[in-house]
């Protein structure tokens, strides 16, 4: 296997597969979770299959953390790729217990290095009480926890997950996400998961890639991609932006948490977590309204000085505005506001204007280390 200087993942796949045209050229981080997002049929699973070596296009190149897995002359076959693959439905061995399923994964590792000890994995995934159980009677969420554990014990250098939570209902998703969140933060390998669900992406991903019709249309930090006003995902009714914050204080009197964001501060009802901790919050574009002057009397807790960085007209009556917190420069945390085009005209809002953003509600997404 050849080596290259790049320590990231470089993936270039182009060609036709069963009449589907794929044209992907992307560089992904070597650590953390990347969400692969896009409409049904845009090619997400096909990209995962190419990464795993299960599909082969005419022109393919893949290097993972400095090792070339394929290029014009060389193709590392699937069984030799150090990849953990998790599918939508956990394909556990029904005749084996949870413990034995994990052992099977461990055997696959051969002489590949452990990326996590079995004990730590069992602890982080909360599998201790399930070890002697047959896989027949596990819940969907439990099955997926075992499947992810088994994949990670096989010593992968890349973890690929194809809609691992899609078969679960909302309650089961809410149950499994904290386990995955804790686990993923401890792993030093790149993890790529396909998802349709922005809530799960906001919670688990650090990086986001958006596909459309076999091509990559956006690739970057989760917060940057989610706040791109021109992307099709910013057009939906539930569009929201994700911002990293630090908890600054909690008022026992009125139970309000104050957090610091780039360029300002926000107040959030309830006790979020310990002072000093890093968190991730989400602001729905529909919950943001704009004012030209600072409103003198309002019940809204968060009225933020902000600058308009971009305006994107949507079909119909509405538009998305990209805002940056603060009036002094454009380095503040960025988020989207959704207003009507009538209001845009009435107040004559334009790129570069300083305005006041009234944020009606902020929701906690999860803890970030
Ligand atoms: N085995 C196959 N034979 C023929 N065409 C296929 C096959 N698998 C996928 N395709 C086609 O390739 C295209 C991309 O499919 P792919 O499964 O990669 O999309 P996707 O983004 O993962 O979709 P979804 O979100 O619905 O799972 C689609 O047009 C699909 O119909």
UniProtKB/TrEMBL annotation:
Entry GO MF terms: ABC-type transporter activity; ATP binding; ATP hydrolysis activity; molybdate ion transmembrane transporter activity
Calcium recorded as keyword: no
Keyword annotations: ATP-binding, Cell inner membrane, Cell membrane, Membrane, Molybdenum, Nucleotide-binding, Translocase, Transport
PROSITE patterns the UniProt entry points to: ABC_TRANSPORTER_1, ABC_TRANSPORTER_2, MOP
Domain Mop: from-to ranges: 297-368
A GO-annotated cellular component: membrane
Record-annotated ABC transporter domain positions: 4-238
One Pfam family from the record: ABC_tran
Cross-referenced PANTHER family: ABC TRANSPORTER I FAMILY MEMBER 10 (PTHR43514), MOLYBDENUM IMPORT ATP-BINDING PROTEIN MODC 2 (PTHR43514:SF10)
NCBIfam families membership: modC_ABC
The protein's name: Molybdenum ABC transporter ATP-binding protein
Organism: Kiloniella spongiae
